[in-house]
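Hey Z.,

So I finally got round to the BES thing we talked about over coffee. Here's the setup:
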Amino acid sequence: MAHLKTVSATTKTWSELSAEVVAVGIFSGGKLTPLAKDIDEAVGGQLRSAIERGDITGHAGETKLFYGKNHRLMAVGLGEKRKLDLERVRRASGTVARTAIRNKLATVLMEDFAQDKKGAAQAQAEGVILGSYQFLDYKTMNKDDQFLLKKVTVRSWDRAGLKKGALIANAVCFARDLGNHPGNVTTPTKLAQEARKIGRRGRMSVWVFDRAKFTKMGMGALAGVAAGTDEPPKFIVMEYWGTKKSEAPKVLVGKGLTFDSGGISIKPASKMDEMKFDMCGSAVVLGTMHAIADLRPAINVVGIVPSTENLSGAKAYKPGDILKAYNNKTIEVLNTDAEGRLILADALAYASKHYKPEYILDFATLTGAVIVALGHVATGIMGTDEKLIKRVKASSRATAEKVWELPLWDDYCHQVRSKIADVKNIGAPMQAGSIAGGAFLKEFVKDGIPWCHFDIAGTAWADTETTSQGKVKEKPYTPSGATGNVIRLVLDLIGS
Ligand code: BES
Ligand code: MN
Ligand code: ZN
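And the result:
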């Protein structure tokens, strides 16, 4: 856990404040804001001269440092002024945080990049904190190299916006930590402990069912997947009642597969380490509940996390086995590596039976096929309710967390029917793999409940990105590793 926790607001002028660097935005064309003009004078007009010589053009993502006798100035490109949206603000703010860390500058004073724009202060705080994130927990040597950003102050009147952005970004960083810790640390037990902590902080009720309990309750699919590991599996339920109980809750379900070896249908060795990230769906749920515990919105939300490892111990489930899920449907297991949909089957059936949800959303690193289809750019979404999908797309636009809808036509749904059981856990070989995952999950959501499935396999963790110039670099506010993607989207959607 290494990131900035808060962003301060000030309305004083920059010369009344002391910070190791003052960050100002430059639009393309090189026009200076009043603050930029002022501080440029203190560094001897270097900024204006850099613009005149074409060394700074103001294109988005550009940064340069200038030095005066008593001051440092960081210029940050914001791109075209009329195109400055909240995502640009978030990215520029992330760039400031990362540039400060790279140059070992611990205190930063920033200009408000998009004065008067609604939501700009929130976006700025989100960008700074998300950009300041580093995962350093296991670096025991060279502590000097591990430089942390200490304080960022924004010249802004919108204290509330900055505070909200900071709380949300902290929740995303919490989810990133859960994902980045290895499988021997982020265990199902650990997820349950974190759920309980959030529950205490947010006045939520939390239940944790262990192997004996959920098996007895009839969760045969989760029990099947968990049979191959000695690491105790958990089924976690969190309830947040922020308004009258008569109001239908929004139910969030997340795949908490803390390590996926593939089981008996074992995965190849290369990159198998990445399967520690197979619990990122559960991190979306816990991250969202983390933010809810701070924001206390007047809504009702239920979070459900089925969690286990998928290993190949002596008692492991096998290809050909038939499991019975919580809604009594039978499942023929044709590949033990399609385990995410099995543990979600019980969770979706549980949500359908015990609540009357306004809607159910599920989050899962479900298929490699979604990476083939959409790369690491967009989350694949599927659902049964047009209105809900429309709202998801609107929240996606508002938060710049990209989603793309895949069709769930009956033609695909037929592909998960089994010859000898009700359904099978794979679709047609080599075809529409992500949709087959969605079609399978649909069998466990009660008819009539609006539902949307998020396949986050491509967006839950980041490597480096290749820019149009072919350069490889990290995104401005998303360092490599677990991203915490779609938490901001979900918070927007549920109306937090
Ligand atoms: N966790 C994986 C999906 C995955 C693969 C996520 C690669 C990110 C990167 C999931 O449990 C899985 O193994 N899915 C199989 C399904 C198949 C056997 C039908 C897959 O995608 O190959
Ligand atoms: Mn798998
Ligand atoms: Zn998996």
